Amino acid sequence: MSGAALGLEIVFVFFLALFLLHRYGDFKKQHRLVIIATLLAWYLCFLIVFILPLDVSTTIYNRCKLAVNSSPAESNGSYVTLAPSKQKCFKPWSYIPDGIMPIFWRVVYWTSQFLTWILLPFMQSYARSGGFSITGKIKTALIENAIYYGTYLLIFGAFLIYVAVNPNFNLQWNQLQTIGIAAANTWGLFLLVLLLGYGLVEIPRSHWNGAKRGYLLMKTYFKAAKLMTEKADAEENLEDIMEEVRKVSESIKYNHPLRKCVDTILKKCPTEYQERMGRNMDDYEDFDERQNSYPSEKSLAKLHKQVIYSVQRHRRTQVQWQILLEQAFYLEDVAKNESSATRQFVHTFHSQEPENKIIQYFYTPTVEWYWECLLRPWFYRVLAVVLATFSVIVVWSECTFFSTKPVLSLFAVFIQLAEKTYNYIYIEMACFLTIFFLSICVYSTVFRIRVFNYYYLASHHQTDAYSLLFSGMLFCRLTPPLCLNFLGLTHMDATISHKNTQPTAYTSIMGSMRVLSFIADGFYIYYPMLVVILCIATYFSLGTRCLNLLGFQQFMGDSEMTSDLIDEGKELIRREKRKRQRQEEGENRRREWKERYGNRDDSTRSRAVHTDQKESSFTETNANRPLSKYTRSNGRTERDRIELLQDAEPLDFNADSVNDDPLESDSGR
Predict the structure, then answer these.
(1) Domain limits at 486?
(2) Where is region (Disordered) located (predicted)?
(3) 608: pLDDT confidence band, cut at 50, 70 and 90?
């Protein structure tokens, strides 16, 4: 089993990252380099979280070996050994051979740092660029990142000059490397505590509120009102951009040098706008530089960038609106079925997507009723209590992990108790649950946060390239300080435990933080205590109230604006529900009519065609005969009879199909 656990986790984490990226990204429409870079960033960060417990168990085993093999004189030397067991140390099932973990961590860490500080910022600018060639996009990205890269180079250059001039400093390359790592971890820890303080409170509270059906329904109505406003704004913005594209397309003719740029812009427009613009083009007209003023390539690149953004935003709001409607309809069905005497879940609308037959076989309407109306609320309450307990333990440990005598951090107590008996399964499970909960609190906040329309992770393949790359940057900057914070909570970091024991392979590549004592003994120790203040602020929704005061509507039960938006959203959902009911009723009537009169319609149409052929042959044979004075033309009668025979389709009333043209209404009698 040596190294097998490492290989299995590497494969599992890859498919986990691929699954999440497929949920948020769009593999078919987005650039392959964007998908690969984001997948690599997510994969490396998740890999660190999953592999670190194996590093902890391997380190404890190595300490045990060292304690057993060392003599009493050696035990007081370079290593302060723990109380050795009288029995022989048992090798853990997930033991990783010596020399593998340092190389593995070094490759993973420096690759993630290269992504977050160099490659991903450049790709962000490249993805948002409106250039029409690879060279143009690279040039735009370099110009936009010149200030970004120049600032870091200036700071690093000034620091090197200060170290070279000051005789008191004699820093080597390893120490400079440690200072760079400490600077990156300090920036990441600053952001980590902010996100962690929000997630520790919001995750248990969201699960507790998930058990309240009325709360979820009211919040869905609130979201519907806000999303409708955003949807209307996106449609209006798209119309304005498409109008500019139309003007540019009409002014730049087929033989203009910039026509290729216009064609590239047109390919990014929706299909209906492309067809509309294609019908209005006059390609036979030549351009005349003396009579008209044409836009420059720079202005076309700016228009191209606006088209990409507006089309993506319009598509995202359309998909989110449909998803929100399904969610609102389902919550209303749950509220109706709670008082059902038959205890079978009845849906108002059938699912538009085909369901799996295996799921239909096991997840019957009766099982669905018991889960949705009876078991699910209690499950969410129990889960919320468990998560709240974990949050309290994390807050307590963040405030007391610097204390080594006595040990007050609960996570350190659990690990040390398991270390005495060398129960590696318990050690790995405790470490995994701890770091997994911390990661969920931090990463879920990254997925929830929204910075206007510039950064927004939307599910169902609606996240743009800029947001995907930005999330990869955040993950790569947050994961290393998150792991160091976890090792500090469990006292596996020698900087925190103040013991000269063998460090983990992960902390060994970070170097000794004693080079910067004010960071190791000050910022790393006392700054995480700020999580208490952030948790209190999140519990009382201080951030939400501040956003409301600034004009950004947030869901608050005691707000008058919230009540108005809930009523507006409720009316929007009711309107969409009536519209869908009319559509389904019309489809059902058409289906029933086709099943009942389908054969009769076919025979009627065949008789009508036969009558037409007979009349046409009769007309041809009598074309050369003189017309009798008393002959009556029965063309009108035959034509009316044929129309009545052909009119087999029922007239279904639909508000969208009402026509005011009297000629068309006469033809459909």
Answers:
(1) 1-68+90-215+356-561
(2) 576-669
(3) low
